[in-house]
Amino acid sequence: MSLRNKLITSIVVTSSILSLLTVLVFAFLTYVHINRSVKDIYSMVSRTYAYILKTLSQDANEVSFRLKNCKHRRANAYIVLRNEGLFVGRVRDCVFYGTSFREVIEFTVNINRVDWMIIYDREVLERITESEPEFLDRFIEGRVVLNDHIIEGRYNPKLLSQVEGITGYKLTNRYSTLLMDFPILLENSVPIGRVIFIKDFSPILKTALLTPALFLGYTFILVVALSSTIFLLFNRIVKDVSMLREVAYKFKELDFSEIDRLSEALRKEKRRDELFYLKRAVLTMAQELEALISQLRNEKDKLEELAYTDPLTELSNRRFFLEEMKRVLETARRYKEPLSLMILDVDNFKRINDEYGHDVGDLVLKQLAQVIKKNTRSSDIAARWGGEEFVIALPKTDEKGALMVAERIRQEFKRSKVKVDGEEIGTTVSIGVAVFDEGYDLDRLIKEADEALYEAKRTGKDKVVIYKVEDREQG
Fold first, then answer.
1. What distances in angstroms separate CA 431 from CA 264, 437, 455, one per listed residue?
2. Fold category of 318-474 in CATH
3. Helix (H, G, I), strand (E, B), or coil: what is residue 315?
4. Are 449 and 434 within 8 A, CB to CB?
């Protein structure tokens, strides 16, 4: 290792250690200060809340009423629910003496300078007031109803989403808000909801961060001053080499999305040094490689299309049909789905070629191909089988459906005409249909369709014949 590399390594290691120690000290001091402040605030609010709850329970006599279905003849710090809201007090011989629960809230808020909200559990409210159907309607007046909760006091959707899962207290909103949770037990046992006290923690947070931040900043200034000169010298080289490495990896995977990024970097480059010419060479190579690959892909697509398409009718050819039928047959066999196959042959095609020429014969074949395309689905496989013969595979199609498709093709082709020199030339088509049976292979299915086609030709042409089960049995 050269002296320069040793110097760079030493500076990087030293700077990293100093920076890490500084951050750890900063994080520790901040954590200690924030944690202590949070505990102090929570302790103060908790003591205030407990004190006023106990005091009002013992001394308040603003309201008094006899409890229905009294379960506690004598009880202290007793909270009850009435139409007017919550009341806190004590029970003596099933008579409640106390005051509004709002007194507890207001005293705690004034002493500790906090906001508040009460989150009632709607399900509990409905359960304990089911004997008074109108109670809940009166209770929610002036309060916010949200899903399974009823909110009283300061309603803030952002804070409400943070309340779930609080146990005691929680810092939220980027540590600028302190939430403190105190459960409300109705009649000493029923958890009707929670009081949430909300404290603006941002002034305390600023104080907690200020002193450690000054220490952190001073240390970082020293570290930066020590290492910045060396890093500035080598930053551009490291940056360019890293970029070229990333670009090269992507080019290796035939991903040329970084060409624009490399071009932009060259346009902004002011210095014409070795790195500049290296980047320009890489860019030129990538552009030429992308163009070559694009050309090869286009040629490959054209070759594949030619390999699987009949050039005259633009239907699939025999090779494509045979390859696709392997998949179609396997699917039908595995899922026990119906499958039909038909072979079509143009009637009197030799006569048309002899009388009108092969050009007219080609027009007739194209006309039949158009009729086939019009009457088949995208999931069907239609192909030119050879000469004037065509074949169509109909997945998920039983005997009845295949006959309907075949008849549509036969009738529409019979109605269609080819116009040549003002003369309309037409002919018919014979169709043989076979239905897939379990245990069949492709050769057997094609053979049955071909035999059905032969029967259609033998018995007068221009008809659809399906290979019957009894024919199979006789065969």
1. 64, 19, 9
2. Alpha-Beta Plaits (3.30.70)
3. coil
4. yes
Q: How far apart are CA 410 and CA 392, in angstroms?
A: 13
* pLDDT for the residue numbered 188: 72
Tokens 């200034």 found at: 221
Cβ within 8 Å of residue 227, ≥6 positions away: 11, 12, 15
**At 197, phi and psi to the nearest 5?**
-95, 135
User: Which residue matches tokens 């300061």?
Assistant: 154
Q: How many CB atoms lie within 10 A of CB 27?
A: 12
How many angstroms separate the first and last alpha carbons of the chain? 87
Each domain of the chain, given as residue ranges in start order, spans 59-202, 255-308, 318-474
Q: Please tell me the pTM assigned to this model.
A: 0.44
- DSSP for 185-245? EETTTEEEEEEEEEEE-HHHHHHHHHHHHHHHHHHHHHHHHHHHHHHHHHHHHHHHHHHHH
**40 φ/ψ angles, rounded to the nearest 5 degrees:** -65, -45
**Ranges 101-105, 223-227, 262-266, 283-287: which has the least confidence:** 223-227
* Helical spans, DSSP H, in 253-375: 259-268, 274-308, 318-335, 349-356, 358-374
DSSP state of 429: E
Helices (H) and strands (E) in the chain, counts: 14, 17
For every residue of 65-112, DSSP letters joined together read EEPTT-S-SEEEEEEEEETTEEEEEEEETTEEEEEEHHHHHHHHHHHH
Higher per-residue confidence, 287 vs 356: 356
CB count in 10 Å sphere of residue 453: 24
Secondary structure (3-state) at 350: helix
- Separation between Cα atoms, residue 462 and residue 431, nearest integer Å: 8
